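Below sits my pick:
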Amino acid sequence: MSMKSKMMTAAAVFALSSGAAIAESHMSADGNPMVGGAEMLPDMTIVENASNAENLTTLVAAVQAAGLVDTLSGEGPFTVFAPTNDAFAKLDQDQVAELLKPENQAALAEILSCHVVAADANSTAIMGMIENDGGMHPVTTVGGCVLNVEMSGQGDDTVITLTDERGQVATVTQADVFQSNGVVHVIDTVVLPAE
């Protein structure tokens, strides 16, 4: 099954709901979120918006190298946990350079698909699932990775974290960046599949 087919047919693990961002986000004069100095327009796709964000350039390069531009530009809906450039900088840079080579496209696509869920899940829906599951909700991504999602704090101080299959913890630093084909939650760590 192709990556596009997997993304489009993966079971939706998040319920649809509307809600507010859990993290304070910078807003444009038009009321749209700002990510990496760029206004995120709700009528643009995930790839179009990410391409304008200065802090997501490594992610965009990786999506291009993995051959996932058309998929993530598709109808969706998708929820993308988008690692920043600083998140990628935490990785061994020789490994990142190796993954960006054409011969490693499949391995890169596997890692990136661990950041994508085939549903449109905002922070309110995520927090509701965490509460319903007693404090931790397992999320299966389109790449087959299981992320354990938890939250701490309350109200404006609520923090959502994702723990990957290697025990690494990624924090959502900006939630609910809505796009025409889904929603993006910016994270501070690249999540990885089990070794």
Observations:
- The first strand starts at residue 26 and ends at 27.
- Residues 1-25 have pLDDT under 50 and may be disordered.
- Strands lie at 26-27, 33-35, 38-39, 78-83, 116-117, 137-140, 146-152, 159-163, 169-179, 182-187.
